[in-house]
Amino acid sequence: MAYVSEDFKTWTKHSISPEKIGDGYAPSVAEYRGKYYLIGCFSTLWVADDPLGPFEDLGPVVTPDGTAIDKTIFDPMLFADEDGLYLYWHKKGLFGTRLDSDNPVKMALEPVLLAWPHPENEWERYGEYNEDPRRSFMEGVWMFRNGEDYYLTFASPGTANGTYAIGTFVGNSPLGEFK
């Protein structure tokens, strides 16, 4: 579903198609070249002319050599920039790639590892009190741009912990290098 508001006070609920993508969580929508692209956890890529759909299934995202990766995309995020449409996700680190502008289900580049857990940062340690330095978890990757800076945000160390927090890396391009 999606919610729409003209004044940020009154919201209208809209059902969208597909009603369920992948496991039905962590959807991301981005406008690119006048189309709206939608993806979710374990989902194929969808496209529509309107952000509320109806969406058409384009198929699974594939690597440059054609290998499907739809079962390894956790918390995917689509980001449109001047030079293309980007896909970000997490799997034991934060990954990103640029999608092919003419065939957006195909990656234009091999996935790039952009960031990885840093359990030396106490807040990233797993556990209710960040007590386990052997484990760390990154999820919920999100990219946004402000001027020339790119901000790659993520959540850690896990939703089950009261210490769940958001971290941010800053870079000078959609695929980093990030600090």
Structure description:
The protein is mostly beta strands and 179 residues long. Helices cover 0% and strands 44% of the residues. The chain is built from no helices and 15 strands. The protein has strands at 2-4, 12-14, 28-32, 35-39, 45-48, 56-59, 74-81, 84-90, 94-98, 112-115, 125-126, 132-136, 139-146, 149-156, 165-171. A 4-stranded antiparallel β-sheet has the order 3-4-5-6, with no helix packed on it.
Mean pLDDT reading: 90
Strand ordering within the main sheet:
3-4-5-6
Structural category: mainly beta
List segments where confidence is low: pLDDT < 50 over at least 5 consecutive residues: none
Helical residue percent? under 10%
Provide a quick synopsis of the model.
This protein is mainly beta. It contains no helices and 15 strands. The chain is globular, with a radius of gyration of 17 Å.
Descriptive labels:
four-stranded antiparallel sheet; 179 residues; globular; mainly beta
Furnish the topology, listing elements before pairings.
Blueprint: E1 2-4, E2 12-14, E3 28-32, E4 35-39, E5 45-48, E6 56-59, E7 74-81, E8 84-90, E9 94-98, E10 112-115, E11 125-126, E12 132-136, E13 139-146, E14 149-156, E15 165-171
Antiparallel strand pairs: 1-2, 3-4, 4-5, 5-6, 7-8, 8-9, 9-10, 11-12, 13-14, 14-15
